[in-house]
Amino acid sequence: MPLLRLPRSRRDLHAIIPVDLLVNFTLRDLRSKYKRSALGWTWSVLNPLVAVVVYSAVFSVFLRIQPTVGDPSGLHSYAVFLLVTLLPWQFHVTSLTESTRAITANAPLITKIYFPRWVLPTSSVLARFLTLLVEMAVLLILIAVLQGHIAFQWIPVVLVLMLLQLLFTIGLALMISAVNVYFRDVQHFLGVALAPWMFLTPILYPLNMVPADREFLGIGYRTLYQLNPMVSWAKAYRNVLYDLRFPSLERWLAIVAATAVVLALGFRVFNRLEPRMAEEV
Question: How many Cβ atoms are within 10 Å of 34's Cβ, its own excluded?
């Protein structure tokens, strides 16, 4: 029995529900990711743990980068300091990497059957988001062990941040996947761009290490640095999960504005490029 029953023309669109397509494609991505894997979902926990061990050894032991003390939590753990931003960043990276090829990798399906193409990159992001939910649950347990109690009041705030990041990443995924159909260099450029993007985001080090008294063309280093939208997410996640305090209004405004702009632009670009995708793939 086929996994998906899709319409063969636009006239048949009323016969399907995009939500059903999203669920089916998302489940397909998850099944393919852990297919023939003995550990299955355990890999979603092991991968970030290995990364934390490596980064902790390099940056906190060899380079002696010290995390800030959580205010007011009092936490002083480089592992937690790193995890609260590394997990959302890995979601961001894997989502963009896999969604970039979501349309080109499904060329046989696209050329034979009509369905809303935006479902493909969106389902790739949703599959990675489910993995992030598992990882964040484990992180909350770790923080609870260190703190001696579970801070239930911060869970809704974390979920709101995760939802906004999900929408932001979907917007980027729609743009990148659509443009990649016409210019395949996009997927190679993305692989090159993600590494410096990570080091230009306060994931491995605290934000206060960025010079505040230096300028480039009359603009402060820290001002330029914070034009990176992922800086606001990293700082907000760290405020909630490491400091155990509410992010500033400035952070929330930056996050909401970036999400709204990128998501709207993503759908606009995708809808503009969608009509000829079946011919180009």
Answer: 15
